[in-house]
Design goal:
This protein has 577 residues and is α+β, with helices and mostly antiparallel strands. It is 20% helix and 33% strand. It has 15 helices and 33 strands. Helix 7 packs across helix 8. The chain is globular.
């Protein structure tokens, strides 16, 4: 599925059903120690404690409910944990106006039956039972969601030492779900690493990391693994940073960072604590409707990094209107000490007066008529703001780590799989580069969201690293621009290749690939500079020393991309910053 080109025919009402999954999961707090009464009590708490009103819908039963299989291979439910079976539990959840979720594994055994001593769960995985189990869960019992683990398919995680192919297994499971006739079922791929771009075709979310635990080091490492996956996010296609540990022992500041970053990065929000006894502070945080609105915003964008200084990060994304004047920004401090952070509005492509709202405290900060906002961010903390500006500038810097990598995956050795990687490089503008592109046309890099308000001619500057001669082909909106050989002179040296390109009004796709059986240069970033038409270049300044340009009678196709200065346009003086 091409996320950037998803059909525009989806109505606004339909879009509200396409956001990240919100609900509760039994695993973090209870493990296999679950029961019929416990699940019903959590459903009751979701309603009575205000979580349902905040947008949470799913009650997900994780590992521990299995009771083996009968002689014909049909699934059985645990005889003591769920003595009345599952149908009554699902009906209870549905009668509360909620949805019900279940768990299984792509192989023979589940993770708890291997590592949790839950021997009754051996042999209950989906392998060779896909259609029978899918029909049982989604038609007979009426579940609405399934998390599919991979212990049964990964050597060392199952007693048979099975090594199964992830894509083949999850495609077969998804096909079995489709055969039930249910078109509303959500599936989560739990493979503990980004499985591959194919995942968006067969699931609604996929785990990108190992299991979370209730520690700052776990939250921090998960965030750092997901900073550069924004291009793989879209409607019903979300990078899953695992269940929430909010309310289970982190500090208040860490809880805020954990929840706020999961929201702005469009991860599924699955509560992992006991909703019956959550602290008031944690409950209010997880029911903060303004933060949740970022997570459920119908542009379906994951915030991306625009600025980094050591362990200080600035992330941004559009909300409400694509390429509009309203954006959400996070100032994130992953370090162990309080730090003063500066939000330069130009860094997030906004200008003029800016209205700011603090989304944690749900209060307006007033109109900012300066070019920057300074705030102290505590250790392990973050600030999240809604910004509404007078002006929206076109983005001029596209880091390689915000691009879509068609062959990206984290399961196999990338050189064997011929797939690209993200890696740290202090020489690069954002501290990260994309490498190991090439060897085949499909191992390419695409910026799929290059916006030009009015279109026109641009100078594209590609910053690259390459210690030997390697070729690339540049393509804009499906049209080849040029094939060129590049060599920066060393693997720690950055050089720039310049291209003249034409962009159409609206969204554009800029693609870099090679047809050769060879690797491409490492890519740092792409910079765009609007080229002023010759008619404008030739206009004489009325006060050149003050850079005041008289454009009376001159057609200006893209005023937002004019160089900084003061212009007279249609009789009005206008300042371009």
């Amino acid at each position: 599925m091409i996320l950037a080109l998803i059909s525009l025919s989806i109505s606004a009402q339909d879009k509200t059903e396409l956001g990240p999954t919100m609900g509760w999961s039994s695993w973090n707090t209870f493990g296999i120690n679950i029961s019929e009464n416990l699940i019903k009590q959590q459903a009751e708490a979701m309603v009575s404690k205000g979580y349902k009103d905040a947008g949470y819908k799913f009650i997900n039963i994780d590992d521990g409910y299995f009771g083996g299989r009968d002689e014909e291979g049909h699934l059985l439910i645990h005889p003591t944990r769920f003595p009345n079976g599952m149908k009554g539990v699902v009906d209870y959840i549905h009668n509360k106006g909620l949805k019900a979720g279940i768990y299984s594994d792509a192989g023979k055994n589940t993770c708890a039956s291997m590592f949790g001593g839950d021997k009754i769960g051996e042999g209950v995985g989906l392998l060779n039972h896909e259609e029978d189990d899918a029909n049982f869960w989604f038609n007979t019992l009426g579940f609405d969601f399934i998390k599919v683990d991979f212990c049964g398919g990964s050597p060392g995680h199952n007693k048979d030492g099975l090594k199964l192919n992830e894509e083949q297994r999850y495609r077969k499971i998804w096909d079995a779900i489709q055969k039930t006739g249910r078109t509303d079922v959500r599936m989560n791929i739990c493979r503990w690493a980004f499985p591959g771009t194919w995942a968006s075709e067969v699931s609604t979310s996929w785990r990108t990391t190992g299991d979370i635990n209730c520690s700052w080091s776990s939250v921090k490492s998960i965030l750092k693994e997901n900073f550069y996956l924004s291009a793989f996010c879209g409607p019903l296609s979300f990078n899953d940073m695992d269940m929430l540990e909010v309310g289970r022992g982190l500090t208040t500041e860490e809880d805020k960072t954990h929840f706020g970053m999961w929201c702005i990065m469009d991860s599924p929000l699955l509560i992992g604590c006991d909703m019956r006894s959550t602290s008031e502070t944690a409950q209010k945080l997880m029911c903060n409707k303004e933060l949740i609105a970022l997570n459920q915003d119908t542009l379906f964008q994951q915030a991306y990094v625009v600025k980094r200084d050591g362990e200080l990060y600035t992330l941004v994304k559009d909300i409400e209107v694509l390429n509009g004047k309203v954006r959400a920004v996070a100032l994130l401090n992953l370090s162990d000490k309080s730090s003063l952070m500066t939000l330069n509005f130009a860094d997030v492509d906004l200008g003029g007066k800016v209205q700011m709202r603090d989304l944690f405290y749900r209060r307006n900060l007033g109109e900012q008529d300066t070019t920057a906002y300074e705030v102290r961010v505590p250790a392990h903390g973050c600030k999240i703001y809604r910004l509404e500006a007078e002006e929206r500038y076109e983005r001029t810097i596209y880091e390689a780590e915000t691009a879509y990598l068609s062959a990206y995956q984290e399961i196999e050795n990338n050189q064997t799989a011929q797939s690209a990687t993200f890696s740290e490089d202090a020489n690069c503008s954002g501290g990260v580069k994309v490498g190991w592109l090439g060897q085949r046309t499909s191992n390419d890099l695409q910026w799929r969201n290059v916006y030009s308000k009015d279109g026109g001619n641009y100078k594209m500057m590609l910053d690259y690293i390459c210690g030997e001669s390697r070729s690339i082909t540049l393509e804009v909106n499906g049209k080849r621009v040029k094939t060129i050989s590049l060599n920066s002179g060393g693997w720690s040296t950055i050089k720039t290749a310049t291209f003249d390109i034409e962009l159409q009004p609206g969204q554009n796709v800029i693609r870099i690939y090679t047809t050769a059986k060879a690797w491409m240069p490492d890519i740092d970033c792409m910079r765009l500079e609007y080229q002023i038409p010759a008619a404008i270049e030739g206009v004489k300044s009325t006060k050149r020393q003050r850079k005041v340009y008289n454009l009376q009678g001159v057609e200006v196709p893209n005023t937002e991309s004019l160089p900084r200065g003061i212009y007279i346009i249609d009789g009005q003086k206008r300042k371009i910053m």
